[in-house]
Amino acid sequence: MKWKFKKSLYISFAIILIISFLEISCKRGTKNNRQISVSVLPQKYLVERIAKGSVKINTLIQKGMDPASSGISPSQVALLLDSKIYFAIGNLPFEMGQILETVRQYKNIKLIEQKDDFGIKDNENPHIWMSPKKTKIMAKNILNNLSKEYPNEKVNFANNYKSLIKDINKTDSIAHQVFKSKKNNTFIIYHPALTYFALDYGLKQIAIEEDGKEPGPIYLKKIINIIKNQNIKFILVQGQFNKTKANTIAKECGCKVIVINPLSENWLSETNRIIRIFDSEME
Questions:
Q1: Is residue 26 part of a domain?
Q2: How many helices (H) and strands (E) does the chain have?
Q3: pLDDT tops 70 at residue 12
Q4: How many domains is the chain built from?
């Protein structure tokens, strides 16, 4: 299914849910003074690090769900309508930025285009949170908006933000050290979730998905030849995706399949784990 088609479906779905819950929201009156909504769990991590428990966080895409194919539950929409701030990535299919006032996290970030079957721009890759450099921009957006909404806590927010940025900078520094020693900068992944991560560190990401769909035999053969010719030892697969194709390729090439979780609630831990995987498996 085309990304655009998926996006239109989720916009329609969002409109229906919002209309259904508009009456509920009106009956509640003013919005919950401490309710914040985010699109994905890595954003929740950033808000928690900066707010330190001073807000309640509603995450629309929960653990195990896929942003490209999962719908939003009515209860989550109700919490969203009751939120003071909605931090949206900005271009995920399910997001409702066209309807609700949101803080789009891709602000001040140059997005990378994705192409359709004819090489025409289809959408921008949304996985900005997998880049430590882009994550710092997201964190600054969160700090600014929380400080504006809760001015009495801006000093605490600023201190927490500094601690978060220190951790992100450390991770970024480790990654630069790891990748500057690698001879081969190419890696294989099922879904292109590390597009911005690869950009940060001069890597070449090759996705098994062909324009967001299951790969055809010609493209599969191309992937297999790349793996064999470049002696690539591993294939990355996001936990929310089917591993059948990756396992088939790995068996053919004698390499291993490694599961990663770009949607992990603990952004720092998972990002560091992904860097360690590259360090141990990439030549």
A1: no
A2: 9, 10
A3: no
A4: 1
pLDDT at 91: 72
Question: Is 218 within the bounds of a domain?
Answer: yes
Angle between helices 41-51 and 154-179 (to 10 degrees): 130
Note down the domain range covering 240: 176-281
Residue 196's CATH number: 3.40.50.1980
Q: What is the value of pTM for the model shown?
A: 0.83
In this structure, which amino acid lies at residue 95?
E
Residues of 211-239 as b/e, b for ≥16 C-beta within 10 angstroms? bbeebeeeebeebeeebeebebbbbbbbe
- Which contacts qualify for 156-163: CB closer than 8 Å, 24 or more apart? 156/52, 156/54, 157/50, 157/51, 160/49, 160/50, 160/51, 160/52, 161/49, 161/50, 163/49
β-strand partners of 113:
124
Phi and psi based region of residue 200 (left: phi greater than 0; alpha: psi -120 to 50; beta: remaining): alpha
Q: What is the DSSP string of 94-159?
A: T--TTTS--EETTTT--PPEEE-TTS-EEEE---GGG-HHHHHHHHHHHHHHHHHH-GGGHHHHHH
Q: What is the pLDDT of residues 174-221, one digit of tens each?
A: 999 999 999 999 999 999 999 999 999 999 999 998 766 788 899 999
Residue 189 · residue 234 · CB < 8 Å: no
Look at residue 213 and tell me if it is in a domain.
Answer: yes
* Residue 132 placed within a domain: no
> 117-169, pLDDT tens digit by residue?
333 344 578 899 999 999 999 999 999 999 999 999 999 999 999 999 999 99
> Tell me: the pLDDT tens digits for 57-96?
999 988 877 776 667 778 888 888 889 999 988 777 777 5
